[in-house]
Structures are given as C-alpha cells and as structure tokens.
Amino acid sequence: xxxxxxxxxxxxxxxxxxDHPFGFFxxxxxxxxxxxxxxxxxxxxxxxxxxIWHEGVYPLTIExxxxxxxxxxxxxxxxxxxxxxxxxSGTICLSILNEEQDWRPAITLKQICLGIxxxxxTPNPNSPAQEPAWRAFQKNKAEYERKVLLQAKQYTK
Amino acid sequence: xxxxxxxxSLIETLYSPNPTIDVNQIQQNLQAIQKSNDGIHLANQLLxxxxxxxxxxxxxxxxxxVQLNLNAESFDTFWRLFxxxxxxxxxxxxxxxxxxxxxxxxxxxIKKLMSNLSLIFITINxxxxxxxxxxERIIKQWNNPINTFIRLFSEYSSNPxxxxxxxxxxxxxxxxxxxxxxxxDVSYDDLLKFVATxxxxxxxxxxxxxxxIEDLTKxxxxxxxxxxxxxxxxxHLYISTMAxxxxxxxxxxxxMYNITKLQLNDIVFKCTSAWINYxxxxxxxxxxxxxxxxxxFQNLMNLMCQSSEQTDNFYIAEKILSIxxxxxxxxxxxxxxxxxxxxxxxxxxxxxxSNANIDTSKNAWMLQYMNYLVTNEMTDELKELAICIVDxxxxxxxxxxxxxxxxxxxxxxxxxxEYIKVLLQMTNFPLIPxxxxxxxxxxxxxxxxxxxxxxxxxxxxxxxxxxxxxxDIFQQVINIYLPKISLQNKQTIIEEDPxxxxxxxxxxxxxxxxxxxxxNLWSILGNEHLTNMLxxxxxxxxxxxxxxxxxxxxxxxxxxxxxxxxxxxxxxNLSESPWxxxxxxxxxxxxxxxxxxxxxxxxxxxxxxxxxxxxxxxxRSSSKMIGTLAGYLTSNESDLSQCIQTLFxxxxxxxxxxxxxxxxxxTVEVMIIKTISIICDICRQQLSGQYLDHFIGVLSSLLxxxxxxxxxxxxxxxxxxxYIIECRVQNGPEEQGKYIVQILNMIEDLIDxxxxxxxxxxxxxxxxxxxxxxxxxxxxxxxxHDEDYESPALIQxxxxxxxxxxxxxxxxxxxxxxxxxKILSSPVYNKDSGFVEVCCLILGKALTLPDQDPHFLRYSMxxxxxxxxxxxxxxxxxxxxxxxxxxxxxxxxxxxxQLSIDExxxxxxxxxxxxxxxxxxxxxxxxxxxxxxxxxxLDKAPHLVINxxxxxxxIIPQCLKLLPSNEKFTIVAVTKFWTKFIxxxxxxxxxxxxxxxxxxxxxxxxxxxxxxxxYHTQRSDLNSYTDLIRGLVAKFxxxxxxxxxxxxxxxxxxxxxxEKFVNRLFVTRGSRAAANVILTWWLECTSxxxx
Lengths: 157, 1091
Hints:
Chain A: It comes from Maudiozyma barnettii. The complex is a heterodimer of chains A (157) and B (1091). With 157 residues, chain A is of the alpha+beta class. In chain A, 33% of the residues lie in helices and 17% in strands.
C-alpha cells in the first residue's frame, strides 16, 4: 500500500469515527494476526426511514486498491442482493464509485455510504445491473416491493 | 441610462421585504447597469450620496465588486477601482466611527469594500503580467492593506475639516495621499496608538485583516498555484496582525500601555481562528518558512486560565477552548511541543515527560471549569471540552503507547502509569454518557487507537511485563464501559426528552463504538481475560432469585455483557472452541440468565415509547446471544430444549401481545424466528430426534390462516423444519419421505381449502396462498445441501434415496403438480405474476442440483415443459413470461444432453416466436430477456442454437433488424448475441462450420446493420458495438474488409474517412485502441467535436 493510500485511509477512519450518520457502521477488518487491514472494510447501511428498505441494515464490503484515492474503492453488497443497480456478484453500480464517471479522490467514505443508502430507495433505471430487480422495478412494483420487504427482514437491524 | 434616482428606487424595491415589482426583472435591470461601463461612476454616486440608505451603499460596494471582476483589465480602470474602494472605505469608516450605534447598518457596506480590497490585494500580488510590466505607475506589490488603512484613516480622522474632500476622487491631495499610502510603513508604536484611539478603530482593523485572510484562504483552496502572496503576507500583514491580536489578547493580562479604551471582543477570537486556519493551510506550501503562532497560543492559554465564573462565566475560556479544539482536530502540530506540554498539564494535571515543576494550579483551573459546566448542566460545552481534550490526547497516542509498553524510551514508567490512571478516571466520569458527559464517549477512540498501536508494536521492543500492563489497563477500560453502555442510561436519556431522538441515536452509536473497542481489546485480552470475564459476569449467579426491587438493574447489566459477549463470540465456531465450551459449562447460570433476560424482555408491557425501545434492545441482545450459542447447544441438549421452548413461547406471546404496537411485535417476531432458524440449521442433528414432531406441531398451528404471524415467519419456520427433516436420514428414505409428505400435505390442504372457497377471494387470502406456496419453495430449498456438506448416513444410503425419489412412492411431486396446475389454471391467481413466479421456483427447484443428489422436487423435463406449454397461453404474459424464461433456461442447462433440436425448436416457437409480434418485439425488456436466453443456450449448449431451424428463419433475421435499435438495452443484448455467435469457445467443429456458413451468408447484411446502427447511435452506446466489430475483424478478416468497403458508402458519403477507418481498424490490436478507431470514425462521420 502506498503511503498516500495509507495516510488517506487512516484519515478516513478518523473522520468516520468522529462523524458518521446514525445507524451506519464502518470499520477495517482484521488480518489473521489480529492487526487491522485498512484496505478492506466492512460496513452497514441502514435503509432510510419511511421507505421499504428501512427495516434492514445492509452489509457492505469495501476494498481499497493500492492506487486509492486516485482509484475508487470496490464496494459490494452480498451476492444475490436484490436491487436494480447491484450486479449479481453484489458489486454496486454507482457513478461515484466508477473511475470513468464521477469518482473524485475527495469523495469520502461517508459520502459513499450515504450515496448507497440513497441508491437503495432511488434506483437508477438507466443503469441496470441485474435483470430480476430491474424488470420488477420497471414493470411490477408490487412484486418489487414484496421482495425488497422480504430482503429487509433478512437483514433486519 | 436610467437616472440615479430611478436606480436608487429599484435598489430599495429589491431589498424591501415585500417587493411590489418582479424581483427577477429588477435584478436583471440592475445587473445590466452594474456590468456597464458606467458601473464605477454609478458605484461612486451610490456610495457618496449622503441621503442614501445602507442598502444603497451596499449595492454601490457590490457594483465595485462586479466591475473588479469584469472591467479591470487596464491599469487606469484598476486604479480607479482601487482608489474608489479605499476612499469610500475610509469615509464610511469615518461616518461609522462618529456614531457606531446610529450607523451600525453601514458595516455591511464597509465589509463589502474591505472584501473588494482583499480581492485587489490578491490580484496585485498574484498577477504575473503586472509584475513583468515596465510601466512605473503600475502597482506591482501591495504589502500591507492594514498599514494603508491605518495611514489613510489616521489622516482622515486628524482633519475632520477636510472630510468633504473624501467624496471627490479626483482631488489631487487625495490622489497623492492614496499613492503614498499603498506601501507605507506603520511602526508598532503607530499601530498601537491607532488601535488605542478607540475600540471602533481597533475592531475595524481586526475586521479588515480577518476579511482579507478569510478571502485568501478561500482563494487558495480554489487555486493551488498561489505562492507569491503568502510570502508577502508573511513579511507584512502577518506581523501587523499578530501585533494587533496580541495587544487585544493581553489587554486584561497586564494592562499594558495603559490602554483603557479597548475591550476584549469576539472579533479577536474570530480573527485569530481565521488566521490559524490560513496559516495551517499554507504552512506546507510557503517557501519562506511557516508563520509562527507560539506567542498567540501562549497568550491565549494564559488568558484562558484567567477566565472564571466570577469574571466572565468562563465565556472567554469557552471561546479559547473552541480555538484550541479546532487546532487539535485539524492541525495539532501547528502548536509546538512545549505549548502542547503546557496544555497537557492544564487538561490533565500531569505531564508525560516529567512530573517535576508542574504548575498544578492550572489543572485546578480546569477542574473548576469542568465543575462549573457540570453544576450548570452545560452539556453542549462539556461535549465540546471532551472533544477538544480527546483530540489533544490522540496527538500523542503513539507516544503514550511506546512509553507504556516498550523499552524505546528510558522513561519513568511510574509517570506513564500515573498518566493512564488519569485517563481512566477521565473515562470513568461519574455521569450518564451522552446526556451528562461526553468524555467516555470520545475516549472510546483513544482506547481503541491505543489498543491498535499496542497490537502493532514489534515484539522485540516490548517491555518484559507489557502483557500484564496491557491486561491491567484494558480490563479496567472494559469494566468502565460495561456500566456506561447499560440500557439503564438509555432509559434515562429517553425519559429526559422522549422527543429528542438524536441523543438516543448518539447513545446507540456509543454502544456500537464500544463493541468495536471490545473486538480490538479481545486481540489483547483474549478469551481468558475478556470472554471469560463476560461469561462469568453473566452466569455466576442465578438471576431468577433476584428480589423484584433492583431486578431490572441486574438485567441491564446482563444485557450489557451479553451485548459485548455476543459480538466477540459470533465470530467463533463455538462447537470447535473447547475453551469457550468449557467456560460456558463452568457457568451454569449463563444460559439460564440469558434465557431469563429474553423472557423478562418478552414480558415487558409496552406502556410507552421508552419501554418499547428498551424491550427491542433487550430481545435483540438476548436472541442474538442465543443464536450465537447454537454451536454450544449442539453438545448441551437440556439447554437446547430450554432455548427452543423459550423461543417458541416468545413467538407465541408476540402474536398475542396486545400492549405493544404492531411494529414492535413485528420486529420482535423477526428477531425470534431468525434465531430459531439459526438453531434449527446448526442443531439440526440434535433436533432431528424427539423435537421434530414438536416442531411440526408448531408449524402446523402457525401455518393456519388464523395465526397472526407474518409471511416471513411462516416461510422461515417451514425452512427451519426442513433443515431438521433434511437431517433425518439414518432410518432410510421412507421415514424422511413421510415427514416431507406430512409437511407438503399440511400446506397443500390449506391451499386447497382456499382454492375451494368462493371465487371472489379477498386480497388477504391471495397473499396467504402465495405465502403457503412460498413455504413449499423454502421447504424445497432447505433440502438442498451446501457444497461442502457431508452426511455419512446419507452417503451410505445415497442410492436408496436416489431410487426412492426417482420412484416417488408417496406421489409428492404428482400431488404438488396437480396443486400447482390448479393455481395456474385459476384466473384468480394466474393473472398475478407472483403466483407464476413461485410455481416456476418450485418446479425448477432441483434443476441446478447434480444428478446424483436426491430431492423430492426433482421434476422431469416433460413435467416442466408440459406446464410451461399449457399455461403460457393463460397467464398474464407481459409480467409472467420472465419466470417461464428463467425456468426454461434452467431446464435447457439441466437437460442439455437429453433435449433434442426439435424439442428446443418447439419450445422456442411456443414460448417466444408465437408471442413475438404481439408482445415480445414491442417490449424492450422481454426482447432483452429472449436474446439473453439465446446467449445462455449458446454458451451452455451451442449445438441447440446452431442447428435450430429457428436460427435462420427467426433469430438471425430479428437480431439483424435489432442491431440499429434505439433502445440501449436491446443494443447491448443484440451485440452481445452476435459477439457470442461469432466467437464461442464452446463450439464443436460442426458448430463452428455451421456458424461460419451462416456468417458467410449474412455477413454483408450483418456488417451493414452494425455500421448503420453504430452511425446512428448515441456516443454512450458506441462501446456496445466495439466487441462485435473486433470479433468480425478477428474471425473473418478478409470478408469483413470487403463487407465494410461495400457497406460504408451506403451509410454516409465520406470515402476518405471510411478508407482511413478500414485501414486503421485492421492494424489495430486491443479493445481500447479499437474503440478509439471506431470513435474517431463516428466523430468524423457525424462531424461532432471530440472532447
């Protein structure tokens, strides 16, 4: 890991611990020897209150490449996650996480987490990443909502 | 041009609270005048008019800003603007000073003029062309606006008789004075004399330097190549400002120079903060060294310690601590080591370096301040103080760690131990966290970082007794936090203000942070010193014998320990952790107390919001702990029995609890059923004996339409029972089969009862049927093993099981199929895609399993195809076709070797071609699904597509037509199809020959449609075509060249661009390079600009 990457991740951790939105969590994982792996984090995104997502806290893994912050982290939900903009592998299709789109080195973990929380309830129909959720979201809202509610129970707070 | 009076009237209307005319229109009109060549003249008139209001004068200053930004290219204009700003500033300051109360509203215009001058200051000192210009009149550098201001304002004030001259910008005396003042020197004595004249002179000077430095900070953050001006600031403005600030800060300390007219004002602190921010930002980029703040910091520190309840109610202390807090949070090393040491003594009454010569009176001051805050319940201020102190402590976290645990420093270990003692005391502030104190909350980060630093220390550097030191310290930390995170505190917080959710959220966050800290500390304390302590704490005595009075306090303690213990133990595989198993066995009341906690919380009657929140917390902690203990329960049958019984009782009371809101009951129900599911999954072996019938009994009652449980609970419990039945293999397939039939019959009977009821079913009834079908699907899923699952009993009898389910003697599949057909043939259900989906899920449940795995839902190919073909005609296809496609896809993959070409063609015709014109072709989603299905078959069983009769007569013609589609998703799918069709590693030799023949026949059309589609598509969709074109060039190079040469002139008449494109395309390697060639062709053909 480059010193820039390390420095920035330490800064991100400090910032997050001091100021993060309520109900979210994010922390670096541990290596086998008990030391901290700053390049791989686990996090939880609560669904927004008043939406069909609100019952759940959705687990994320965040992997920072060596080139971070020049390159964005790879952020994944569990594989098979039901959402129009989440690939079957769990990879999130969000412009701020795409190096060729809106990623900027100044984007913080807090912004990423809030961006994903926002994406949960406001999918982008122009950027489908999986067929079932995308189709249901477009064509069959009742089916879409039923499945989202069920999924929320699986990831209940 | 409008008359000045008209303009003034418009300005007054614009700024009036309820403008009578359209504001946008006024703004447009005024902006036009501001930007015009008459702007400066207008500004001067507005600023000099004695009768004009402050709003009009502000607008005049704003007009100068507009002119500065638009019309300041020539030096003459620039100088006009510069001198106008200076003259108006001095004159307006003069008017303001004459009677600050009456003229208070003038400050807005004065500040705008100061801001204009700061822009001029930056422009002069940063603009390169000015410095290179030979014109001697040009001002190449403006050293110090404060000196200029002092000089001009002193001149103005000393000659009141000449005040009228300051309205005439052409006055030679004024012009000369301005020119002389630009880079004049003002000695320290003159500066002191000036500010000592009056508090207003002082404040105006402070305001001016604050505005300049704030503007410069903003400017620097936008432009990164600013450098020259910092040097000028360092050499001039910094010196004046530091003098100014120090005069103000030390006023009360030593009454220096007998200055009696000045008072300490908030402006001093605002100005100090602005300067610290600026110096912090620029200190790493200035070539001339950084600007020292030591004197300011020292004076602030001294002033802070003079603040008291008697003198100022610690107002000054609060202001200065806010400045220090900002420093420690953002750039702590801007304060030198010696000063930080002094701060340490003030904050903690102890120094890491030495305890000799410590002035403890300063810490006494801090204790007085804290006492004042606590006594007056000033929680916001206490929070600010805690943040400031902990930010300060974090600076030296690593140093503390090294001194405590290593031999790197030859220090006195007693000092470090004392130091830690103080920090522990501070963490253990005896008040309620979040509500009354914030030290413990903020100190979580400190202890977590200290633990991290300790873990990362190299072994060779550690002191011989470092392990013991670590254990001593971090055990104390845990012991401090356990009561802090107690729900008793949460209760007090909620009761204090039930409407204030933010405090509750903060407390919840605090609890989460303590979990993270505990996980860090586990790496140091291990099970021996942490998990054991928690398990012992929970299970050392019987909580059921507690007297009523004070019982809840103990349960809150148990909850806090369970909350942390669960986080530690959930990462362990308990059944393989003999240490933990042993500890759990040694604490006989552990399991009992956890269950008791669960029971107590279930029985809590929700009388208000507070109880509701606490109840959920307590059930969450206890139920999660029970789930985590599943690995332990595999070897403790009596505890397992107790757990199951308690959980079911909880589930039962949940549905019968009328006191709680539906929302609370739903949440509790989800937590309980998830715990039951975990136990059923992990303890399936232990439960497969005597418990199975009990489980089936519970399932039977919860499946009833009258049971008030959620669909999630029904389906999860069905799956849980499935886990147990799945494990019941030792007595052969017949016994397991009977259980499976029992469950299926139970559900099927309930569905049948619904189907037999009147046709006009209610919405709830439909949901219920859908839920029951979902239960069957979940039941089927529970019988599918993980890949690494091994059951010796099943492996021994695998053949019998295989045979058993092949023959299906109980007719499970047949009966279920009849039921599914009933659903699919009923117009009440078959128009709802949810029912079609779940039927397809059940039919396809075993399609992904390896052939040798037995499963009761292993339907034959003909069973599935018959259902599809029969009901595709009656269901609502626009929403249900995707589920048939999903099923067909799995079917083709599973039976690829048995499925004949004719059968494939028949299915393709019946499911796709028949509905193409009326439905699929008109719906981009269905179109995409159909094409994706073909792509999947091409990947898994290419011979079926290549030899299909549908390929030449339907698939190829349609996919050619769709190449120039307007729909992004269709383009993606169809280009992917052609790319796969041309380049498929799964082809046999015969497939390959077949594909080549088809391409040779349709290549010209394919290339034409591809290039036509590409030409007409949007830029964002260009990449979809790239892989296809690359595939054609790679697999059919000669032919593609010819096809391109023939096709391109038909698309657009640009022969040279086409020629260049073809030539470049055929010598290009790599996806990115090819994409660039294609992009260039597209841009040149469409005459669009490249960017």
